[in-house]
């Protein structure tokens, strides 16, 4: 499996999912002529529920009649026992959160009694497809990860290169699954957002709570 198969300015590949838990099935090619925004989150990610998902909901309500498609993608690159499709169903069907999300939102008084979210997610949501890793990890796969995360790796001194390669190898050997869409789009964490223009071209991916979703949507709509 290639860790990098799409770069900004290239056609956006369809999302690789195990299941559309809410809405769908979705094929990105069906949205030619519309701006597509994919909000990527983990169920066990407090920041996703404090910042990323609410911002996506606000923009869904703002632009749903203006040629903008907003989708949700739950992924898992850690805490595989919590970031599951079962807990995603619990979230979407009963508005219940778990793990660190439950702890943090409870502490911040952002939940109703019983660990219930104060909002619902109105747009289609899928679970990223997880591929079980195979051991041993070959050199090609290690370098795919290195080059995806360190664009100027070739400029490193040899000793630094060896240290990076060693760390990546150790990481891959302890990682049971690879989230296919997360890695295909070279995302760095959650919350992340994928922006696809009217021609189906990947225009931008962002990581963290940027607060710039509306501005980016406006820019893409104006083209």
Overview in brief:
The protein is an alpha+beta fold. It has two domains: 17-129 and 179-221, 3-Layer(aba) Sandwich (Glutaredoxin); 134-174.
Structural class: alpha+beta
The CATH class designation of the largest domain is Alpha Beta
What does the overall shape look like? Answer: globular
* CATH architectural name of the largest domain: 3-Layer(aba) Sandwich
Portion in beta strands = 15-25%
Helix content: 25-40%
Let me know the largest β-sheet.
6 strands, mixed
Could you state the CATH homologous superfamily of the largest domain?
A: Glutaredoxin
Number of strands: 10
Q: Please give the count of helices.
A: 7
Number of domains: 2
- Average pLDDT works out at 91
Characteristics:
six-stranded mixed beta sheet; 223 residues; Glutaredoxin; alpha+beta; 2 domains; globular; 35% helix; two-stranded antiparallel ribbon
Describe the structure.
The protein is an alpha+beta fold and 223 residues long. The protein has two domains: 17-129 and 179-221, 3-Layer(aba) Sandwich (Glutaredoxin); 134-174. Helices cover 35% and strands 20% of the residues. The chain has a six-stranded mixed β-sheet. A two-stranded antiparallel ribbon has the order 4-5. A hairpin with a 5-residue loop joins strand 9 and strand 10 (202-207). It is globular, with a radius of gyration of 18 Å.
SSE diagram, text form:
Blueprint: E1 17-22, E2 35-41, H1 46-63, E3 68-74, H2 85-94, H3 99-107, E4 111-112, E5 116-117, E6 125-128, E7 130-132, H4 139-149, H5 158-174, E8 177-179, H6 180-184, E9 192-196, E10 202-207, H7 213-221
Parallel strand pairs: 2-3, 3-6
Antiparallel strand pairs: 1-6, 2-9, 4-5, 7-8, 9-10
